[in-house]
Amino acid sequence: MSAVEVRRLTPADAPAYRAARLAALQADPAAFLTNATEFAVHSEAALAARLAPDAAGVTLGAFVDGQLLGLLTLVREVAPPLAHRVNVYGVSVAPQARGQGLGEALVRAGVALARSWAGVTSLHLAVMDAQDAARRLYERCGFRVWGTQPDAVRRDGRVHAEHWLVLEC
């Protein structure tokens, strides 16, 4: 496999972001709260606005040979009592690229970026109980489970617990 390039996505990446996010939602629907049908209604213009430099969140992409194969979004809390916190959302790696370090490269780049923001003291994320590989990845990168919410998500007749993780900076 070629070298992994992790960088912030820009509005010009909207078509690739749309394709990668839809593919992730279709490949692993139990990992996300949003489903592919809900995401598909967003236009490329709306997605480009999400990727604009002044947007509320920052989305990083993992590229191999110019192909976007992984995603991670960071969103800093805006309310002053919570502004020390950054939430990690929408982490995914294309099935054909798993096990090759893209997820770890994304998470480590996200952690480094969040740590560079003044006043940030912790990163937070949640992972469904069925996503053991993702939980292990986060733990390798320094996150720890601090709680589990039983009966967190009900989808397709299944009940899922959600593990909550934190990384203190």
Automatic annotation (TrEMBL):
InterPro entries in the record: Acyl_CoA_acyltransferase, Bact_Acetyltransf, GNAT_dom
Which Pfam families does the protein's record reference?
Answer: Acetyltransf_1 (PF00583)
By what name is this protein known?
A: N-acetyltransferase
Q: Which organism is it from?
A: Deinococcus arenae
Q: Which GO terms describe its molecular function?
A: acyltransferase activity, transferring groups other than amino-acyl groups
Coiled-coil positions are none
Q: Is Transferase among the key words of this record?
A: yes
Domain (N-acetyltransferase) ranges: 4-169
Keyword vocabulary terms for this entry: Acyltransferase, Transferase
